[in-house]
Amino acid sequence: MPKEDKSVGGQFQAQTKYRRGQLPSKTGRDVPVLKVYANPLETAVLPIPSLQGGKGLWSSLSQKRLDIPEGGQIHQHELSQILWGTAGFTYGGQRTHINSGAVSGIEAYLVVRQVQDMFPGLYHYNPRDHSLEFLKRGDPSFDLQDALLNDTDIDACAAIIAYTGAPSRLADGVKSRAYRYLYLEAGGAAQCAMMSAVALELVATFRAEFYDDELARLLQVDGVREFPLCVVTLGT
């Protein structure tokens, strides 16, 4: 028998296994399926995303994704496409990104530096209305540069999409695997954002290395009930 892996990852994997006869039961309790802010600074309805055309799936997947962003401004219609592609709803009422159950456990935030007709600051994406809730005004460059690792050139990024996870939303019936599902969903959503950006001929990079508590403070989440999972930087 192989030796038990006692690392954090190994213990997490072992403790979230499903075993025959030991599946968790569902409580049937109601949970909020989306996060909505009651009093944002303002709400900006995004341009209607196009559901046809664009670069084909195979060509988007095969596109080189190692370009270095040069700065510049992203247009609202481009941002609208990417946000819908990463965290919106399809005609069938499903999320555009993969999710393991009927409810998605992730949220998408937008940190704006240079976006057409938008104030710099922090926004929350509301997928039901395809709108942005403006949460905090001000240039986020300094805080972002400090929070992200790997020498990210913030000056070359027009905006950043940050994904957070709320495990309690998935706790009904799948509590033991809620964190597994959050990681899977965030990866799927980030992949959708990358493909959408490539299809629009923008530069996008995936980032999973950051100071967790600092990024949580920037996104105005508590870091426990809701915490950062990954980010996608956008540039031109």
Please explain how this structure is put together:
- It is a single chain.
- By secondary structure, the chain is an alpha+beta fold.
- The chain has a single domain, classed as NADH Oxidase (3-Layer(aba) Sandwich).
- 28% of the residues lie in helices and 19% in strands.
- The protein is built from seven helices and seven strands, in the order αβααβββαβααβαβ.
- It has helices spanning 8-15, 57-62, 76-87, 141-147, 171-174, 178-199, 212-219; strands at 42-45, 106-112, 121-126, 131-137, 159-165, 203-207, 227-235.
- Strands 1-4-3-2-5-7-6 form a seven-stranded antiparallel β-sheet, sandwiched between helices.
- Helix 3 (76-87) packs antiparallel against helix 6 (178-199) and helix 4 packs antiparallel against helix 7.
- It is globular and about 55 Å long.
- The N and C termini lie far apart (52 Å).
- The relative contact order is 0.20.
Write a compact overview of the structure shown:
This protein has 236 residues and is of the alpha+beta class. It has helices spanning 8-15, 57-62, 76-87, 141-147, 171-174, 178-199, 212-219, and strands spanning 42-45, 106-112, 121-126, 131-137, 159-165, 203-207, 227-235.
Keywords:
236 residues, alpha+beta, NADH Oxidase, 7-stranded antiparallel beta sheet, 7 helices, 28% helix, globular
